[in-house]
Amino acid sequence: MIRIFPRSIRARLTTVATLVAALVFITTSAITLAAVPGSLRTAVRTDLETAVGWVAEQARTGRLPAQLNTPSSLQLLQVVSPQGQVLAATPGRPLEPRLTTIRPRNPGVAHVTEHLLHHATDARHHHCMVMAMLVRTPEGPVTVYGAASLDRVNTVLGRLRALVFLGTPLILLGVAGVTWMIVGSALRPVERIRSVLAEITGRDLSRRVPVPDTGDEITDLAVTANTTLDRLERSAETQRRFVADASHELRSPISGLRTQLELAAAYPDETDWPAAGARALESVERLTGIVDELLMLARLDTGVAAERRVVDVCDLVREQVRRRAGGRVAIAAPPCPPAPVLGSPLQLDRLLTNLLDNATRHAAGRVEVVVEEDRDEVVITITDDGAGIAPEDRERIFERFVRLEEARALDKGGTGLGLPLSREIAVAHGGSLVLTDHRPGARFVVRLPLCPD
């Protein structure tokens, strides 16, 4: 592909600015060169007509002086009789009477016949403009001649052309140079930001890009880049902690399973193999639970979209209650109308499973699950009658691998991933999960967008 403009932003902006300036200057110069010559000659003609008309008026009234004073732009004025006698003139050489063309003009004075006579050859060739006017006076008809020099006009036009043809390239070079410097100065902070970003690696995300104090878009870019680096640093730190905690949680059941199997292998005759198999199966089940929750968390973290369809939350709750019938804790679920949400059945079922497992683990004897609609949301409330959770720990329990002392005492095989996973699922479905104040016990409230019919 042919590149018309250079790749560099600085060079592109300089090129565009220079081309725009060239277009403006060329258009303006063309209009000026086309209009100014006519305007200057019109001004000279007007002055000449005024002077000739004034002399004609003096001659008509009989007040014609012998010597005529002319403006500086005129060469001379002469009043000539029909016999060729010069009746009045400006100081200077006589006017050459090579006038052959006579065109009528509008009379400048009442009862006076005026004629404008042009030089037989074009006035531009002689650098002058010639005019003549026939006037009737008390002594008889006379002819008033006037000549105006065009040298000053030609000089002005020459200087104007020199200014246009020599000044325009210089101006365009100046525009290009100034644009190059201004754009370079504006992009210098961008280069500093780029160089710092190029040095930042995944091992050290603590560095930040410099923020210029110009208050413009580049400042906003630097602030946004630093904000992004803050998020990346927090995410990397969370990921490192997650990996470390996951390794620790996986190491415990694996070590226990290995120890059991090594003891059984070392003393096969003294080993109760059914009991050893049961303990190994418990360890495997715990490992399976940890791996399943880790995989689901990983999918949620990476934004992998699960297959979604309309799910009735009331049906999920009824199925959860049915599966837990006859357990240590009674679960009450009042009847509810259909509460459809758009989501993944597997993930929503895992959310309810984790919340109900947590509630039954801490409840004294009763758990209540209520599903209701609140405007455009489905609200799921799970309440237990246990000891509750202290206010300062109500957000900590949603951190991964965080297990309070009470939870460790009640269930030594827990992973600390159930509640964090439940909140992640709720957020991934456009909802929320919070722990609200309730006495006695704890109350978890899940809000999910209601799926319209």
Q: What would the principal axes of the Cα set say about the shape?
A: rod-shaped
Helix/strand/pairing category: alpha+beta
User: What is the terminal separation in angstroms?
Assistant: 52 Å
- Poorly predicted spans: 95-126
Care to count the β-strands?
Answer: 13
The major sheet is characterized as: 5 strands, mixed
N-to-C SSE series? HEEEEEEHHHEHEEHEEHHEE
Average pLDDT reading: 79
Largest beta sheet: strand ordering: 8-10-11-13-12
Radius of gyration in whole Å, from Cα? 51 Å
Structural overview:
The chain is 50% helix and 18% strand. The chain has a five-stranded mixed β-sheet with strand order 8-10-11-13-12. The two termini are 52 Å apart. The protein has eight helices and 13 strands. The longest helix is centred in the N-terminal third of the chain and has 52 residues, at 9-60. The chain is of the alpha+beta class. The chain has helices at residues 9-60, 151-199, 217-266, 273-302, 313-323, 345-362, 405-410, 418-428; strands at 74-80, 86-89, 99-104, 115-119, 128-137, 140-149, 309-312, 330-332, 340-343, 366-374, 377-384, 432-436, 443-449.
Could you outline the blueprint of secondary structure elements for this entry?
Blueprint: H1 9-60, E1 74-80, E2 86-89, E3 99-104, E4 115-119, E5 128-137, E6 140-149, H2 151-199, H3 217-266, H4 273-302, E7 309-312, H5 313-323, E8 330-332, E9 340-343, H6 345-362, E10 366-374, E11 377-384, H7 405-410, H8 418-428, E12 432-436, E13 443-449
Parallel strand pairs: 8-10
Antiparallel strand pairs: 1-2, 1-6, 3-4, 5-6, 7-9, 10-11, 11-13, 12-13
